[in-house]
Amino acid sequence: MTNLSASRIRRRSDRAAESQQQFITFTIRNVGFLLPIAAVYRAVAFEVPPAAPGGSPLPIEQIRFEEQVLAVLNVDQQLFNRRDRQPQASQQVALIVETGQGKLGQGLGQGLGHALTGELNDEWNDSGEFHGSDRLIALPIDSAPSLCRIPTSSLVPLPKTYQVNCVMGMTDNSADPPLRFLLNATQLHPSEASAGADVPARDSPLPEAIALVGSNPSKPRPA
Description:
- This protein is an alpha+beta fold.
- The chain is built from four helices and twelve strands.
- The protein has one domain.
């Protein structure tokens, strides 16, 4: 009887562990967002030079990181449907996101948990090496990113009134408030980030991004 009870407890514990997924959580314009941890390559910081001495920082379209030039998403346009960008801080934090062409955007509703645990993980092999698209983009954020675990049962599809292609779901607030929106990395496109943006010309070199300490150091660089 004791062995049977212990076995049941272990099975329940295993099911509880499987029902939660790891995410990177952060805020943009005072709104909470999530990204699956496998979609985030690094968290970085960079300085935004001013347009002129004493002036406001210019919007950044590109940065340099690990000898690559990466596009910087226009979050005001892509996430909030705003044409005008808000002023940037002189010190900026961003997530380097892998926009692998998986099927993460499918399986909403009852299958949302399967889309997270199955399709996204298909982009990685057993050794943790990324074998999907090597496309990297920089997603500017307003807060230091942190790691969290969220039950997949608490993730729900967006209401039909929401028209944001790169947002695939949201938390239902039943277990872990506040409300947070789940981004679909496959829908974060640099071409959309800069489309229609009125950005002044920049003569200075591109900002150099530096990886933050403890930012996924074990994840290999995409080939």
